[in-house]
Design goal:
This protein is of the alpha/beta class.
């Protein structure tokens, strides 16, 4: 059994040890992630941690509105000995009361009533001690000095069935019944009942008599019936017993706001990828979509009035209301309980208000400090985009510096004030147009135009409208460029005769898809030959031996299945290829390739179905198609609108 002294000693030790316990705050996508982080920082096993949840995490919807778990964790205190360990278990996990109730001694009660003297013996619980006959007789003698049925007492003790049994008659003298007194204390919040011992022939008070006495003396609220019933069963004379408690008023909780995003935008949230931390994914931007709930107001609670034991009302205060602080591009719901994003963008707290910004500005370079950028709006980079990083935006991307071996992907325009040096693996994708000073060793795709001032070198360029390269050093040297309407530059090719492939007059994406289908068709036809050869060999073997071994029979069936799959895929390729060819043949795009200065030998020109490999140098020319031939005419300037940035 846990004693009061043991509890005091335990609490004192806990307080002393608590002074030296190290605490850390940890975050994670899940509670387990947060605990793992805390375990690493504290240098202890997870099972040796204790923690408190500061903010409960949320998965969000389709990746948006996610909220991390935030906990405070600290090392579990280890008891020094077995007894202390038992004490800690009992105190920390609430085993003390359970332990006490599991092992309870039996109990003997005696009541004096007008109907007679009654005895009740309760059985022990668990490993508790049974009531002995001597204990029962001693208590009867203390309460009643007359003769009683000892045989009946023996039976009651033996069976201990927790029932009242009459053991003697009793000459009741009402004049000697016990007196009662009540003390109302603590500003009328508690009432103490004291029973004074009865005289000769006086009977023990009943439950109803005690309740009636309290009510007559003004105690009308918070009466503790269990305490009074216990007093009826086993009267305690001369001892003040708490029989009523007032209800304290409870002030209502103030309204508060629950945010669905991380308000501390500077906090880094590293992610693991294939078991390793990806330091490029810092997740510093909190993207939101139009209509997304950014915060909710939990309304204030009404206060709950209290009462004294005498019934006096103790008023309580209602909780205070509050407003959700909204800023730019955020609106309140009709009932004012939620803040909702009006546009796609980044949610931030600015001037203590919730704002959604359509533009995300990177003050310097995109590097390990910023991590990869993913934003549902326009991104402005005031420095460079370093090798190995990516910038993806639902709006435009504008880079004041240069772009290295990285990925840029925007639904709008991509503007690079310096140049794009892709180092063979860099890739730029635009839903509108791409504007840059130069493009070198990169892959660039634009739904409209690609406009460059200095030059395009050894790059793979696809533009659904035009590729314009106009400036003092505007040259296209090497690479493969495809545009639907026009390719225009000062110089095409180089003195060294490097292969430069230029294609116009069709939808480049459709043409690229057609090339991919043709390549796949060739691969399937080659595989089909191998499959048919193996099938022929197995069929000849089957004719000779009538049956095939189990392994070869299984291989035969696999080949038959693969043959059907190849035939089905070839049919799909044929259908899609014919659709693309019909689409390309119906396009009314003439297409032209222009050079304001020089076209060097080595340039290959494709205009629809016409082809020309340049053998001799040309000056200031435009290539167009007439029939299946490429015709050379005078140079045509690109239209001014081709240089317009959005």
């Amino acid at each position: 059994m846990v004693t009061l002294d043991q509890i005091r000693a335990y609490l004192k030790e806990q307080a002393e040890q608590d002074k030296f316990r190290k605490r850390v705050q940890a975050t994670g996508e899940t509670l387990e992630d947060a605990l793992n982080q805390a375990s690493i920082e504290l240098g202890v096993r997870i099972r040796d941690l204790e923690y408190e949840v500061l903010e409960k995490g949320s998965k969000g919807t389709f990746g948006w509105g996610k909220k991390p778990w935030v906990i405070i964790a600290y090392e579990t205190l280890k008891p020094k000995g077995k007894e202390q360990a038992e004490e800690k278990l009992e105190m920390d996990f609430g085993f003390a009361e359970d332990h006490k109730s599991e092992h309870r001694d039996g109990k003997v009660c005696v009541r004096l009533t007008p109907e007679g003297v009654f005895l009740k013996v309760s059985p022990p619980q668990g490993k508790g001690r049974r009531v002995t006959e001597r204990e029962a007789i001693d208590k009867i003698n203390r309460r009643y000095g007359g003769r009683f049925d000892t045989g009946m007492v023996s039976k009651v003790v033996k069976y201990a069935d927790d029932e009242w049994v009459k053991i003697a008659d009793y000459m009741h003298n009402p004049a000697n019944d016990p007196m009662m007194s009540v003390d109302i204390i603590d500003a009328e919040m508690r009432a103490l009942l004291t029973l004074h011992p009865p005289g000769a022939g006086g009977s023990d008070p009943t439950f109803d008599a005690m309740v009636e006495y309290l009510q007559r003396n003004g105690v009308v609220h918070g009466i503790r019936e269990e305490a009074i019933r216990a007093l009826e069963e086993d009267p305690q004379y001369g001892v003040p017993i708490l029989v009523a408690e007032g209800t304290k008023p409870k002030n209502g909780r103030d309204a508060y706001i629950v945010y669905s995003f991380e308000r501390n935008s500077s906090q880094v949230k590293l992610k693991e990828k294939n078991g390793r931390v990806d330091f490029k994914e810092l997740n510093l931007i909190q993207n939101v979509v139009e209509g997304q709930v950014l915060a909710r107001k939990i309304p204030p609670e009404r206060g709950e009035s209290g009462r004294t034991v005498t019934g006096k009302l103790l008023p309580a205060k209602d909780g205070k209301d509050c407003e959700i602080p909204i800023g730019k591009n955020v609106r309140l719901s009709e009932d004012g309980s939620s803040a909702i994003a009006e546009i796609n963008g980044q949610v931030i707290i600015s001037a203590d208000k919730i704002n959604v910004e359509p533009i995300y500005v990177v003050e310097g370079d995109v590097n390990l400090k910023t991590g990869n950028i993913l934003f549902l709006g326009t991104v402005m980079v005031k420095g460079n985009v370093e090798d190995g990083f990516s910038v993806k935006a639902a709006g435009n991307i504008e880079v004041t510096g240069s772009v290295g071996r990285c990925d840029l992907d925007a639904e709008g325009d991509i503007i690079v004030h310096q140049g794009i040096a892709g180092k063979t693996t860099g890739k730029v994708l635009s839903g509108h147009s791409v504007f840059a000073r130069f493009i070198e060793n990169a892959t660039v795709e634009a739904a409209e135009n690609v406009v460059v001032s200095d030059g395009i070198i050894n790059s793979n360029i696809i533009a659904n409208k035009k590729i314009i390269c106009k400036g003092k050093r505007a040259a296209i040297v090497g690479g493969h460029l495809r545009a639907s309407e026009e390719i225009n530059a000062k110089i095409l090719g180089s003195v060294s005769g490097s292969e430069t492939i230029l294609e116009v007059g069709y939808d480049p994406k459709s043409k690229e898809r057609l090339d991919t289908l043709n390549q796949r068709r060739e691969e399937l036809l080659e595989e089909s030959e191998d499959v048919n050869l193996n099938l022929s060999t197995l069929m000849n073997l089957k004719k000779m031996k009538k049956t095939l071994p189990e392994e070869k029979e299984r291989y035969y069936q696999e080949l038959m299945t693969r043959k059907r799959e190849i035939a089905e895929e070839l049919e799909k390729i044929k259908t899609e290829s014919e659709e693309i060819k019909n689409y390309l043949s119906q396009l009314k795009i003439n297409g032209k390739i222009c050079s304001s200065s020089t076209v060097f030998p080595g340039v290959k020109i494709y205009i629809k179905d016409a082809f020309l490999e340049v053998k001799n140098e040309f000056k200031g020319v435009t290539f167009i198609a007439e029939g299946n031939l490429v015709k050379v005419t005078k140079y045509e300037e690109p239209e001014d609108e081709d240089f317009q940035k959005r």
